[in-house]
Design a protein that fits this description.
heterodimer; A: 101 residues; mainly alpha; two-stranded antiparallel ribbon; 4 helices; 2 strands; rod-shaped; B: alpha+beta; FAS1 domain; 7-stranded mixed β-sheet; 19% helix; 24% strand; globular
């Protein structure tokens, strides 16, 4: 008995399915390689995690860490307590060398 | 895209006093927590180690091509551990927090910027102090610490104790040859990169070292690796159990033996252990705690043309130094005062 040949309509349906799978794969890959587009900066990402306040405080003392793609990671909010504790800066000094004793 | 290694509050609490930390050293420490190329932790196999370059490239803190390194190891249980200077290790406790421009891995220890051989041996791996003292005694220490991208095969103190009699009768030029044979210039060779039956080229007249690997056991000629991948500011140290000799390049390990025999024949005193004297430790240049009469040492207060960041500052209460004493006082590539913490 001969196998029933698939209809042209069934073939196009399969092609669409394959395309959809391929597109899903491509978009998943793109999402993996372009994780930088998540809508929040480092500070926001760290803020939602518990027990990272010390590191966040370090970032807030005016240090600038260069991104390889231009721009800097420079946060302006000041954290006197952290800066005093970790960097021995005088009270209120949070912005680098100019504020050191 | 960046990968930021973020120590949690518990990690910072373990450090306690940060000592004389400056803004510059803090920035260097932060750069050491940022990888230049993100690493997918899921791609690391259990038991596998890989090296990751960081954004710390300041020549005052590192002399490794491509930026100072962190080692990532996936443990048999699946945990990922970062290893930094002074063998400071941090386990990843939260993985892959995404932000615009990269991802964050949270670890439970602050990564410590690797330091020169001098401070690493004095402060973290004291079983290398005889080797370090021998380097100072022969005037090789500074040359080796300033070299870019080196692998150091550092014999432990017991190896020097076992050969104390031989070494005391060895002319300095011969001793230099022996020590240079322990240096592999221009290559930072991590333990997992060493292939069985391969050769490495030493600094002693390009003489080869034959490498043997049997599972986790690694040998250079007949000397066995005891502690691996101790990160330095300019490379890595592999601690070995015996002193190598350029005159015995064909020495091979007895893989069935529990301990390898030295290639040089011991004579005279061979006692090992903490009760026995450790050769060459009296040649270690003095630190700020040394008596004022101590007058050896060739340490330079500058390092690669800039002020040495590892030199402890002398406070007003310390005795004033001059001449050779002052040179010795510079040493300290640490003396415990520096970069405490990171």
């Amino acid at each position: 008995m001969l196998a029933k040949s698939p209809s042209p309509r069934a073939g196009s349906h399969r092609l669409v399915t394959l395309l959809a799978v391929a597109l899903a794969f491509v978009s998943a890959s793109t999402a993996t390689t372009a994780q930088q587009v998540v809508g929040r900066d480092l500070e926001s990402a760290l803020a939602v995690q518990p027990e990272l306040s010390t590191f966040r405080g370090l970032l807030k003392v005016g240090l600038s860490v260069s991104y390889p793609y231009g721009g800097t990671l420079q946060l302006t909010e000041c954290s006197p307590e952290i800066s005093r504790r970790l960097l021995k800066l005088p009270k209120g000094g949070c912005h680098g060398k100019s504020s050191r004793a | 895209m960046l990968q930021v290694v973020v120590p949690n509050d518990f990690a910072f609490s373990k450090i306690g006093n940060w000592g004389r930390k400056t803004l510059e050293s803090t920035e260097a420490a932060l750069k050491y927590h940022i990888l230049t190329t993100p690493i997918n932790l899921g791609s690391i196999l259990k038991g596998q180690s890989i090296v990751a370059a960081t954004t710390l490239t300041d020549p005052i803190y590192t002399n490794v091509t491509g930026g100072q390194q962190l080692i990532l190891t996936k443990q048999p249980g699946g945990e990922v551990v970062f290893t930094s200077g002074f063998a400071t290790r941090g386990t990843v406790v939260v993985e892959d927090i995404a932000f615009d421009g990269g991802i964050v891995q949270v670890v439970d220890s602050v990564m410590r910027v690797p330091e020169p051989l001098d401070s690493t041996a004095r402060n973290a791996y004291t079983d290398l102090t005889a080797f370090l003292g021998a380097l100072h005694a022969t005037g090789l220490a500074e040359e080796i610490m300033e070299a870019k991208d080196v692998t150091v095969l550092g014999p432990r103190n017991a190896a020097f104790q076992q050969l104390a009699g031989v070494l005391s009768d060895t002319p300095q030029e011969d001793l230099k040859r022996i020590l240079r044979y322990h240096i592999i210039p221009g290559a930072v060779m991590h333990a997992w990169e060493i292939q069985n039956a391969s050769s490495l080229v030493s600094a002693e007249d390009n003489r080869p070292l034959r490498m043997t690997r049997l599972g986790n056991y690694i040998f250079a000629n007949s000397a066995q690796f005891l502690q691996t991948d101790i990160l330095l500011s300019n490379g890595v140290v592999q601690m070995v159990d015996n002193i190598l000799s350029p005159d015995y390049p064909y020495a091979r390990p007895d893989v069935n033996a529990t301990a390898q025999r030295p290639v040089l024949t011991p004579t005279g005193a061979t006692a090992t252990g903490t009760a026995a004297p450790t050769p060459f430790t009296s040649d270690l240049p003095c630190t700020a705690d040394c008596p004022e009469t101590f007058a050896t040492g060739t340490y330079s207060p500058t390092w690669r043309g800039v002020a040495n960041p590892y030199t402890p500052k002398q406070d007003a209460a310390s005795p004033k130094n001059s001449g050779l004493v002052g040179m010795g006082l510079g040493v300290g590539v640490l003396a415990g005062a520096v970069l405490v913490g990171i």
